[in-house]
Fold this sequence. Notes:
By secondary structure, chain A is mainly β. Chain A has strands at about 5, 10-15, 20-25, 30-40, 45-50, 55-60, 60-65, 70-75, 85-90, 100, 105-110. Chain A is built from no helices and 11 strands.
Amino acid sequence: QKEVEQNSGPLSVPEGAIASLNCTYSDRGSQSFFWYRQYSGKSPELIMSIYSNGDKEDGRFTAQLNKASQYVSLLIRDSQPSDSATYLCVIGGGSYIPTFGRGTSLIVHP
Amino acid sequence: SAVISQKPSRDICQRGTSLTIQCQVDSQVTMMFWYRQQPGQSLTLIATANQGSEATYESGFVIDKFPISRPNLTFSTLTVSNMSPEDSSIYLCSVVGQSNTEAFFGQGTRLTVV
């Protein structure tokens, strides 16, 4: 049984700060790692994907992957109130069926 | 990326009735999934919709309650049968892109059973 663990939060950060979201996973065979953002009442939307160890940056977002530690994180720089949402860590394997974490609620306050 | 049209976007239904949710994709995709998201919870996989054969259901979900059709590589339906208030959830259609990596989601169907 694949497991994806996230702290449910809420994580509260002030506007302009760095928000750090973390995720661990159980399946060492996992190959694909994603972060989705879900606003209340809306469907999840893909914001970052990462497949190899290290950092991947896209605008204010940086995904970090450490396969040896089975750990993936998402950093959001210069956090904005519009970033307030639930962030879902999603893991994929060879025969891809997405496994979702429970999500971390992020609150960015002015 | 794949563009997914899911409908209806919301519905209020009487207990004991059934609702069919449709999912249309703008391109052929190999893998399609149906998820449920109960209030305050993460997504739970109901089943994998298989083209031309019976869906593969996850533990706790059965075909009699959630019959699924997938007549081709761009379309699937999920029926929620004999509904009860416990079925009130958001139901999401999802597909995996051509590269077999990212997942994409329909807009979701917000179902309320009264």
